[in-house]
């Protein structure tokens, strides 16, 4: 799964089969199982992966390499070799020092690719180590065609033959959002589009892996079947179904899916099942208040539900069937990777003129931004919408429409350039900054893609 995440989010090139090997690489290669060279079908470019952990041997590494990613072609495995590091932007290490350690190498010389590589590595649960090329200035931005589509609520008549909706005029109102749900008993895709959802959370197809206890006697228990069908309906009513349905996901479902043969829950690995049950934190993914989301709550369980106690009991029962307890996941890191890390990022002092100057101009580095914030010192960093994107302490927030080009550094504090809008304060002008007070500047290339995060003193 880690490899798929890096492949999907980064969409960068990897390493080639050739190139000279340095003395350091030869030393590491002596203990390396080998490398996998493959073409990333997302970017149509070559990539490379090294198998270093003790869990890997020639057979398991070769099998992993031969498993297509993103419905692409199988890779080529070469035992005892490392990836070419002649010209790279960095590496991503997953399970560093552990038995499953793997390293993905990203070649190239364009510093504009560095932010994407680091973001993708974070989603894969890895540690990114940048090459010095990333220290060079880069003017990057997210173009409209790749931008996060903001949440929108759509209200439509119910399907013919269906009962009236709960909203005014009998309409069914649904947030077109990754954390949105339609009314209970209805199917999300009948009342909202998955297209926007795919822009809001990295989507990547990968094959389902079934490793369920046997024999399976659950399906012979009428009470269990009733609960299973209810949980399945809860998934179908939520935007989760966009990626976890073979009928909706454009390039194939992301692992487990509702149409999976047998019991689809068997395709959910233990960590993900613990997250869905609420045993592992997934706060960083964001959530609507239940009263604004057709009664669906995601504050306790990772899976949105209209009945938290019922959902918890069912999923905890599935974990117990696998012999797992809550204590097994005490050290499991929160889901979200860079999304979670960003919430608790500790900023340092701005450099190179970043901040709001005496002329009122906001200056940042790292690329053209779609979101610009000035916050009080000590505020949490902005996270994902709908509930984490305007932290307490936000003084001013400027948003760029997803259909417009991002803004280059140098906008006036409190202004609303063409294609942009003031998201905070929601009315009235931006408050004047207090001279001598320290503020927190955040500029995002797009949602969850930071360019600048630093502290400045108002002139």
The mean pLDDT is 87
Query: Class by helix and strand content?
Result: alpha+beta
Low-confidence stretches: 1-29
**Overall outline:** globular
Per DSSP E runs of 2 or more residues, the count of β-strands stands at 17
Radius of gyration: 24 Å
- What count of domains describes the coordinates? 3
Order of helices and strands: HHEEHEEEHEEEHHHHHHEEEEEEEEE
Task: Tell me the strand percentage band.
Answer: 15-25%
**Number of helical runs?**
10
Can you give a write-up of this model?
Helix 1 (2-10) packs antiparallel against helix 4 and helix 8 (270-277) runs antiparallel to helix 9 (308-321). The protein is 20% helix and 20% strand. The longest helix is centred in the middle third of the chain and has 16 residues, at 222-237. By secondary structure, the chain is an alpha+beta fold. It starts with a helix and ends with a strand. Residues 1-29 have low confidence and may be disordered. A hairpin with a 2-residue loop joins strand 16 (438-446) and strand 17.
Strand-helix topology:
Blueprint: H1 2-10, H2 23-29, E1 34-40, E2 45-51, H3 58-66, E3 76-79, E4 88-94, E5 102-107, H4 114-123, E6 127-130, E7 152-156, E8 172-176, H5 188-191, H6 194-200, H7 222-237, H8 270-277, H9 308-321, H10 338-343, E9 348-349, E10 355-356, E11 361-363, E12 371-376, E13 394-400, E14 411-412, E15 420-424, E16 438-446, E17 449-457
Parallel strand pairs: 9-17
Antiparallel strand pairs: 1-2, 1-3, 2-5, 4-5, 4-6, 7-8, 10-11, 11-14, 12-13, 12-16, 13-15, 16-17
Brief rundown of the structure:
The chain has 3 domains: 2-135, no CATH class; 152-329, no CATH class; 346-457, no CATH class. With 459 residues, the protein is of the alpha+beta class.
């Amino acid at each position: 799964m880690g490899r798929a995440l890096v492949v999907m989010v980064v969409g960068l090139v990897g390493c080639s089969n050739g190139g000279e090997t340095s003395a350091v690489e030869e030393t590491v290669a002596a203990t390396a199982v080998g490398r996998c060279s493959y073409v990333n079908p997302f970017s149509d470019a070559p990539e490379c992966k090294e198998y270093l952990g003790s869990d890997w041997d020639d057979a398991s590494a070769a099998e992993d390499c031969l498993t297509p990613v993103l419905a692409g072609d199988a890779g080529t495995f070469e035992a005892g070799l490392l990836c070419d590091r002649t010209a790279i932007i960095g590496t991503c290490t997953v399970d560093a020092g552990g038995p499953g350690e793997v390293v993905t190498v990203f070649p190239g010389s364009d510093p504009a690719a560095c932010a994407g590589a680091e973001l993708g590595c974070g989603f894969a649960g890895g540690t990114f180590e940048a090459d010095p090329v990333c220290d060079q200035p880069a003017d990057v931005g997210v173009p409209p065609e790749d931008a996060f589509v903001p949440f929108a609520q759509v209200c439509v008549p119910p399907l013919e033959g269906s009962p009236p909706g709960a909203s005014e005029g009998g309409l069914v109102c649904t947030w077109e959002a990754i954390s949105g749900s339609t009314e209970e008993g209805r199917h999300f895709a009948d009342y909202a589009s998955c297209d926007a959802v795919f822009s809001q959370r990295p989507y990547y197809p990968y094959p389902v892996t079934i490793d369920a206890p046997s024999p399976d006697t659950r399906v012979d228990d009428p009470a269990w079947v009733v609960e299973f069908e209810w949980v399945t309906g809860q998934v179908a009513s939520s935007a989760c179904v966009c990626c976890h349905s073979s009928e909706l996901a454009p390039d194939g479902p992301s692992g487990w899916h509702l149409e999976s043969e047998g019991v689809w829950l068997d395709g959910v690995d233990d960590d993900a099942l613990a997250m869905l049950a609420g045993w592992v934190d997934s706060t960083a993914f964001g959530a609507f208040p239940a009263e604004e989301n057709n009664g669906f709550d995601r504050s306790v369980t990772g899976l949105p539900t209209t009945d938290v106690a019922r959902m918890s009991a069912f999923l905890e029962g599935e974990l117990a069937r696998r012999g797992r307890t809550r204590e097994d996941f005490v050290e499991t890191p929160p889901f979200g990777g860079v999304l979670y890390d960003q919430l608790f990022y500790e900023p340092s002092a701005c450099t190179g003129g970043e901040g709001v100057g005496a002329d009122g101009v906001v200056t940042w580095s790292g690329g053209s931004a779609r979101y610009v914030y000035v916050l009080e010192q000590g505020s949490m960093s902005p996270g994902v919408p709908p509930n984490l994107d305007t932290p307490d302490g936000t003084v001013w927030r400027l948003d760029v429409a997803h259909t417009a080009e991002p803004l280059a550094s140098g906008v006036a504090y409190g202004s609303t350039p063409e294609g942009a809008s003031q998201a905070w304060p929601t009315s009235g002008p931006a408050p004047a900054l207090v001279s001598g007070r320290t503020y927190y500047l955040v500029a995002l290339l797009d949602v969850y893609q930071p360019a600048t995060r630093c502290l400045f003193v108002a002139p």
